[in-house]
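[job 0412] stage=fold_complex status=start
inputs:
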Amino acid sequence: MDADAPLLLFDSGVGGLSVLAEVRKVLPDAPVIYAADNGGLPYGPKSEAEVAARVCGLLGRMSERYRPRLICIACNTASTIALAMVRDVLAVPIVGTVPAIKPAAERTRSGTIGLLGTAATIRQPYVDRLAAEFAADKRLLRHAAPELVTAAEARLRGETIDPAVIARAIAGLRDQPGGAEMDTVVLACTHFPLLHDELAAGFGGGVAFVDGAAGIARRIVHLTQGQSFARSHPDFALFTRRDPDFTRLAPALASYGLTQIEVL
Ligand code: DGL
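[job 0412] stage=fold_complex status=done
writing structure:
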């Protein structure tokens, strides 16, 4: 294993940066490629077949070109749909991101958990299986919040977020039967922790959030134990489509240590 072989984190957009932030804390020396399929963003409204085809095809190309030591699918939508398929076709270790229902079930006192994700994620059998296995005795309220994906992308470009977008996402859970008892919310889309402060202010102090990022970072540490890391060039962001917004996104990317932008 070359010391400069990168970790490749993949998302449809900037959401996976919430995972990268946790990876940086535990593996500061690891070379990273942050890959965003901005040409396919958003994944949430797409069909399972479309997401699976994009994710398998793109990760195949990226893995041939950049030879990562490990791939992290830093996207709940892509992982809940395509994780098994990607593992079938690529020889590199793959770490997925799945809704943190287990820790939420362990944390809740009221027994009512909210799940905020994309439309594609919240309907996945993968989520049904997690709910049956870890939260069978809990009430799990699901809500698709595609507007939060758009808001998180806008925020990283330095734009102001419309508070009504946050309010609508919260109401989508609160207004369901039992919503008033909810004390734990799973942020089941990697874009959503980027809006943590707005969501926390909107839900109020009685609600805690859980997401998978820290657990994923620990898993990556485990899978790379004993390996050495050295950067032979600066970490970079890799996009699937050239975009005039790159200049507005560059400062946010740089704050995550991604000082260059490349296009696949
Ligand atoms: N960040 C992605 C996730 O975790 C999805 C956003 C999207 O492309 O709709 O599900």
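[job 0412] summary: The pocket of D-glutamic acid is lined by residues 11-13, 15, 41-44, 75-77, 118, 121, 149, 189-191 (CB under 6 Å).
[job 0412] exit 0
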